[in-house]
Amino acid sequence: MQFLPLIEAKREGRVLAPDQISEMVRAFTAGEIPDYQMAAFLMAVCFRGLDPGETRILTLSMRDSGEVLTLPDDPRPIADKHSTGGVGDKVSLPLAPMLACLGFRVPMISGRGLGITGGTLDKLDSIPGFRTLLSAGRIIDVVQQTGCVICGQTDRMVPADRKLYALRDATATVPSIPLIVASILSKKLAEDLDALVLDVKFGAAAFMTTLNRARELASAMVNLGRECGVNTRALLTSMDAPLGRSAGNWLEVKEAVDCLENRGPDDLRGLVIDCAAHLLIQTGKAASIEQGRSLASGCLASGAPRRKWDEMLVAQGADLAAVEKKIASATTAKAVVDLTSPSEGFVSVCDARVIGEVVRDLEAGRLTKDSIVNYENGVDALAKPGERVEKGSLLARVHGSTREAAEAAAVRIAAAIKISDNPPSVPSFVREVIF
Fold first, then answer.
1. CATH entry 1.20.970.10 includes domain 4-63
2. Less crowded by CB within 10 Å, the N or C end of the chain?
3. Is 187 among the residues known to form the active site?
4. Which of 10, 112, 162, 187 is catalytic?
5. Is the fold of 4-63 the same as that of 79-155+172-324?
6. Catalytic residue (one of 76, 81, 82, 254)
7. Fold for domain 332-420?
8. pLDDT digits over 290-338, tens only?
C-alpha cells in the first residue's frame, strides 16, 4: 500500500477511512510497511489522536490480525479482568479461580512486566513446573474443564499488537490513549468475552498519574468495549502505595495464596471481591454491588477458590508437591534483611514508585524486555498507610541475592516510608466506577 499519504493525513489531523486503517494493520503485520514509517505514523497519532471510530477500526483490525479464541456454547458466561499495572498487583491470581467457582469461564490472557510494574506471567513463572505458553486449543480445553486459565497470548494471537507495542516502546509513543485502548482491547476481544472488568490505576506508580487521565482512559475503553459487544466497566483505583504487602514475583504468589485462604491484606481481598462483584452484576448473576460482594465473599470463605487454584496449577503443568514445599519456606531468596521503624507513630506514606524501583533493582523486575528476572527477590511484610507502628516494629522485609544488595534496598525503602504523629486520612481504594 501507499503508506506515506496516511502518515501525511494523520499529521494534518485528518480522519482515516476504515479500509485505510484495516489495510495498514494487515500490511504492517505482514512486513510490508517498514518500521520507520510506522514509527512516524504512531508519533502523528500521539500528537493528533484518533477519533472513536478510528480507534474502533484499529482495535478490531488488530484483533483480527491473528487467531481468536472460540469457546463452545455453554451456559457459563465468559469473563475476564485487565489491570493497567501496578506495584504489588496480584489480583488476577486469586480472581481467576474465584470466578470459575462463581460459574464463569475465564480465559485470562496476561502479559509480562516492564519497568516498575510486575507482570502476571512473571509471577506465574515462579511456580515450579507451571506453563504459561499454551496453544489456543489447550487454552480452550483448560477453560472448559477447569473454568479458568492464566497464560500468555499464543504466537498467532493479535500479532499486530505484538509488533506495534515493540515499536511504541522504542519510539516513546506508548502514552497515547487511543493506542493504549487498541492494544488492551484487541487482546481482550480476541478472548470471545461476554463481560470485562478493567482496573485502571492512577497515582505515584501508575501509568496514568492523575485521576483525570485515568478516567479518560477508562471511559474510552468502557465505551469501545460496549460498542464491540462486551459488557465492560472500569474501577479507578489508587496506586500511591503498593497493593497488598508484597512486591516481587514469588512473594506475590504466596500472598495470592493467602488471599485464597481468606487471609492476607484487606486491600487485596477487597479489590478481588469488588472485581468479582461487578462481573456478577454485568452478567446478571447479582442485582446489586452488595449482593455481588456477598456472593464473592461467601465463595472465598468456602475454600472452593483455593482448591480451584490447585486444579488450575495442575492443568497447566505445575508440580503441586514442589509448590507446597516452596510455600512453606520462610524465604527462597539468598538473603533477607528486616527494616524496622525508627519511631512510633502512624505510617503516612509508603511510596509505591520507590518500592517498585527497589524491587526492579533487586532483579525482580525488568529494565528491558530481555532482562533476566530473579523470581525469589522482592519485598514483603510492608507496613500500610494508616497503620500504627511502634519503635522497632517491622516496616518491611527485603529479599535479595546478597546481603549487601538487600541492605542497600532497605535504606531506599526506609526513605519511602514516612511516619507521622497523627493518623493520616486514607481515602477509599476504589475511587470511581465507570460503566
1. yes
2. N
3. yes
4. 187
5. no
6. 82
7. Aldehyde Oxidoreductase; domain 3 (3.90.1170)
8. 999 999 999 999 999 999 999 999 999 999 999 999 999 988 999 999 9
Q: What is the pLDDT of residues 378-401, one digit of tens each?
A: 999 999 999 999 999 999 999 999
In the annotation, is 92 catalytic?
Answer: no
Q: What fold is seen in the domain 79-155+172-324? A: Pyrimidine Nucleoside Phosphorylase; Chain A, domain 2 (3.40.1030)
Distance CA(53)–CA(33), nearest Å, equals 23
Whether residue 64 lies in the annotated active site:
no
CA angle, 379 then 266 then 301, to 5°: 115
pTM of the model: 0.94
Report the DSSP pairing between strands 345-350 and 388-389. antiparallel
- Whether 399 is catalytic is no
CA atoms within 13 A on the CB side of 98: 33
CB neighbours of 9 closer than 8 A, spacing ≥ 6? 16
Tell me how far apart the alpha carbons of residues 418 and 135 are, in angstroms, rounded to a whole number.
47
Q: Which phi and psi (to 5°) does residue 37 adopt?
A: -75, -40
Known catalytic residue at 123: no
Cell of 161: 499488537
